[in-house]
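Aggregate trends can hide what the representation actually does to any particular protein. For completeness, the protein is quoted in full, as a sequence line and a line of structure tokens.
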Amino acid sequence: MATANEDIFDDFLDERGHTTESPSWEQDYNKKRCPDCGGLHGLDASTCSVCGWQPN
């Protein structure tokens, strides 16, 4: 879940023409890759078992 500071930072960037997006799983062949730590998981993963990251 985004914190108030992240929301303020995103608003700041948006006002200056930068795009902000929520991080999501990266695709690596037939695996999902965590954008936080780079851990590889099966396609059915919903939480990173290495660092605990979850998409929003």
